[in-house]
Amino acid sequence: MKWTNDRSENVDDRRGSGGGGGMLVGGGLGTLIIAAIIFFLGGDPSAILSSGIGSSSQQTEQRDLSADELKVREFVQMITGLTEKTWAKIFQENGMQYTPPKVVLFENATQSGCGAAQAAMGPFYCPADQTIYMDMSFFQELQQRFGAQVTEFSIAYVMAHEIGHHVQTLLGTTQKVNQLRSSGRYSEAEMNRVSVATELQADFYAGVWAKQTDNREKILEPGDIESAMSAAEAVGDDNIQKRSQGYINQEGFTHGSSAQRKEWFMKGYNTGDIRQGDTFNALLR
């Protein structure tokens, strides 16, 4: 992936600053459920975050960031800047104004608008404070545990997916899904299908971002799209279920299969058109 000179001021790097947070604890079936949730990409983790699971305090000492960590910050600032530029253009073309999210880099634990954020949860978007939280150790887990090919662009894909959830909040999709969930009129299986549609739309938006950004900045290099597809495949529900519990239960899908995640990212990438991303009608009719 080629770097650009874009840098966003909306990145808050909390690494090395010290602080405390809780550690996830659990056992048996609960552990499998939590593991399945926390290693997925995206979604609103407020139900897990605010549940008080694990309240033991862990303090980290203040320290200086290494040269590699500073480079990571620079990369995240660049990707965030590229998303701001692309989505501002897309929104303007559709008669709207884009408000960018904040991005927080942390290690171990920090506080979010959805509760205590922990490293084991992986990157997530919190609608309450319109902020993306990322502990970069997630990408080691993605490679070592789930077999993904981790490159700069696969990290960009993960960030673009999370920013896709921010786009959903700006467009009112997140609020509509929350209303359906709180109405109590739908079964768990039905809400799981809504969740899948929500996550696949975020993948689609990530593909739209990749296409439009590359058209403008020429950021993609050979192998970049393949590495994004490797990450999408690694976090498919079927792949995670098979690795964590040994079998696949489609009714339990909340983010989509590996094939679906790749399909919708590529649809966004191939069309570059935000209007082609109605996953809800495609999956729920």
Automatic annotation (TrEMBL):
InterPro entries, per the entry: Uncharacterised_pept_Zn_put
Pfam families: Zn_peptidase
Subcellular location: Membrane
Name recorded for this polypeptide: Neutral zinc metallopeptidase
GO CC annotation terms, alphabetical: membrane
Region ranges (Disordered): 1-20
Domain of life: Bacteria
Record keywords: Membrane, Transmembrane, Transmembrane helix
Residue stretches spanning the membrane: 21-41
Basic and acidic residues compositional bias, start-end: 1-16
Topology with respect to the bilayer: Single-pass membrane protein
